[in-house]
Design brief:
Length: 67
């Protein structure tokens, strides 16, 4: 299964396989649909590597593939 993450609004909204993930008023990531464990792990990796990285000024689309 591959997971595609597309930035909608940097640091605020992203789509994960078509599901909108955004920050709530408490600064937590939320999604109206339950993400699979693969999607959740991919987003956590993306957050660690891209969202929280100050070197990235513009976030890019990413695709994660499982073995």
């Amino acid at each position: 299964m591959s997971v595609e993450i597309i930035p909608v609004k940097d640091h605020q909204e992203y789509t994960v396989n078509g599901h909108l993930v955004c920050k709530d008023q408490f600064n937590n990531w939320t999604c109206k649909h339950d993400l699979s464990s693969t999607e959740m792990n991919a987003f956590k990796n993306y957050e660690k590597m891209v969202i929280n990285n100050k070197a990235f000024t513009k976030h890019a689309k990413a695709t994660y593939k499982t073995k």
